[in-house]
Amino acid sequence: MSAVGALSGGAAGVAGLLSLRRRAAPAPAPALATPQLPAIKCAAVPDAGQLVWGRQLRPSLLLSAAPLAARKQTLRPPAAAAAAAPAEEAKPASFAEKYPSLVTGFFFFMWYFLNVIFNIVNKKIYNYFPYPYFVSAIHLVVGVIYCLGGWSVGFPKRAPVDSGVLKLLIPVAVCHAIGHITSNVSFATVAVSFTHTIKALEPFFNAAATQFVLGQPLPLSLWLSLAPVVLGVSMASLTELSFNWTGFINAMISNISFTYRSIYSKKAMTNMDSTNVYAYISIIALIVCLPPALIIEGPQLMQHGFADAIAKVGLTKLVSDLFLVGLLYHLYNQVATNTLERVAPLTHAVGNVLKRVFVIGFSIIVFGNKISTQTGIGTTIAIAGVACYSYIKAKIEEEKRVSL
């Protein structure tokens, strides 16, 4: 109606000026009659009705010419129209909205499944291609290709990054790269179950860093829950048949690296989603992993490493295995991130513990690793200690969140 008012007012002003002009001017001399131009209808103009030779028809004329149904629709109050719009546009709830528990359960299943398959394929590769630095780089190469492909099709849309964000992400990525390389060196030299038993000590390093590096005191109950972890790992290490110092030390370095990754991650809070953050971290970590792979293992690979592996399994299997293990590595990390975003801290903690149990159990079954009774008892105690620690820590975090 504002447009109607504006046009009507303008037409009235022009008509008044013409009327004054007619009164002031002398009577004109007789002249030939000017032919009357026919009215020409223009097309409908939104929010302005129909224009007839530059003049707008009054709303009453338009409404009287409109059908009854259209009149009712035109006269509907704006509030009623706004209330009717959501009802007309309402869509049925999606499967994820109807059954969130099933969707979360599927995410957990895929996380465990991909993690177990990754560990199995990874260890099988090391049995005929013992070059963990190179394989670590391949894991990241495939992941980076996956991320670049996703960005190219807009799934997800690439988040912009500047020098400030890079300064936050570089320490996280460096720690991620070191932890990744040392984990693979340990996987290549000892049994998968033993590496994961050593990596069960990661909560101990996290607690120590929180207390002594970040200066955040931890309750005594949390420290006491770590005692079974240390005891269990010690028992398992003393009688582990595949024990060697290279595997043990690299697994410990991996624990320290991932601990500092957690510390830097807390400081590197960005507005990017987890998928973009992990993509940038993978790219930076690949840059860190390439030099050690080329310097430490490059000469051996060129002399006999590739040739020996091809002679054992063939070129096709070597390439397909390396691509598959890299894809599994990226997917299980990505699914793990997406899974843990959907659950509460306590569920997160329980999920992490169960994942380690699944990996240790399946690796023993698949590879037929023989373990002593003491190793089995020590591993069980360590996992139980991790479960207690995770439960207590999750409860503390939940209480802090509620209090805020």
UniProtKB/TrEMBL annotation:
Subcellular location: Plastid, Chloroplast membrane
Gene Ontology biological-process annotations: monocarboxylic acid transport
Domain annotation Sugar phosphate transporter: ranges: 103-390
Cross-referenced Pfam families: TPT
Membrane-topology descriptor: Multi-pass membrane protein
GO molecular function: carboxylic acid transmembrane transporter activity; organophosphate ester transmembrane transporter activity
Transmembrane intervals: 102-121, 133-153, 168-192, 204-225, 245-264, 276-295, 315-332, 353-369, 375-392
Annotated keywords: Chloroplast, Membrane, Plastid, Transit peptide, Transmembrane, Transmembrane helix, Transport
InterPro entries in the cross-refs: EmrE-like, Sugar_P_trans_dom, Tpt_PEP_transl, TPT_transporter
One cellular-component annotation, GO: chloroplast membrane
Name the record gives this protein: Sugar phosphate transporter domain-containing protein
Native source species: Eragrostis curvula
Phylogenetic lineage: Eukaryota, Viridiplantae, Streptophyta, Embryophyta, Tracheophyta
